[in-house]
């Protein structure tokens, strides 16, 4: 969920494996259209905010399923430019908060991502029910995967 009044230039999105670099090197990035797709749903669920949804399928090869032995972890990273126009800063201030969710649809893994630990204010209780609906729809035959 993008913060109100902000937007993302789709061409700025970079997704890759969990490399030691802040931005994954080109050879460890996923390919848009092949490994992932992006969609934006404006005024999602009448929230006044835009939902950015990324559908990601990680290639089953050593290069893209990299295990970092130093930190003993694996995963993926996503980076993008979030634009916050001056007019939005005047209206809403300089601080923005992204609400992020992850839905794991791989039945062969044991990790189950969720949207909130129930203790933090992000997302708000009013929005949590809407995110739960996305998760439940994704676990069913319909597939939806939100970003980081």
Task: Please sum up the structure shown.
This protein has 148 residues and is α+β, with helices and mostly antiparallel strands. The protein has helices at 86-92, 125-139, and strands spanning 7-8, 14-17, 36-41, 51-56, 67-68, 73-74, 76-79, 82-83.
Task: Report on this structure.
With 148 residues, the protein is α+β, with helices and mostly antiparallel strands. The chain is 15% helix and 19% strand. It is built from two helices and eight strands. It has helices at residues 86-92, 125-139, and strands at 7-8, 14-17, 36-41, 51-56, 67-68, 73-74, 76-79, 82-83. The chain has a two-stranded antiparallel sheet with strand order 1-8. It is globular, with a radius of gyration of 16 Å. 12% of the residues are buried. The model is unreliable at 141-145 (pLDDT under 50).
Total E-strand runs: 8
Radius of gyration: 16 Å
Mean pLDDT: 76
Terminal CA distance? 10 Å
Q: What assembly state would you assign to the polypeptide chains in this entry?
A: single chain
Total helix count? 2
Weakly predicted, low-confidence segments: 141-145
Helix content: 10-25%
Order of helices and strands: EEEEEEEEHH
Q: What characterizes the major β-sheet? A: 2 strands, antiparallel
Structural class, by secondary structure, is alpha+beta
Strand content: 15-25%
Question: What is the global morphology?
Answer: globular
Provide the spatial order of strands within the biggest beta sheet.
1-8
């Amino acid at each position: 969920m993008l913060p109100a009044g902000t937007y993302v230039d789709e061409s700025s999105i970079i997704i890759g494996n969990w490399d030691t670099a802040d931005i994954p090197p080109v050879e460890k990035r996923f390919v848009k259209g092949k490994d992932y797709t992006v969609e934006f749903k404006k005024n999602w669920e009448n929230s006044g905010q835009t939902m950015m949804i990324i559908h990601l399928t990680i290639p089953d090869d050593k290069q893209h399923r990299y295990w970092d032995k130093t930190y003993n972890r694996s995963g993926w990273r996503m980076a993008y430019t979030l634009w916050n126009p001056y007019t939005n800063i005047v209206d809403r201030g300089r601080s923005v908060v992204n609400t992020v969710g992850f839905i794991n649809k791989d039945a062969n893994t044991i990790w189950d991502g969720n949207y909130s630990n129930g203790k933090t204010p992000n997302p708000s209780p009013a929005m949590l029910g809407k995110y739960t609906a996305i998760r439940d729809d994704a676990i069913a035959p319909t597939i939806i995967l939100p970003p980081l």
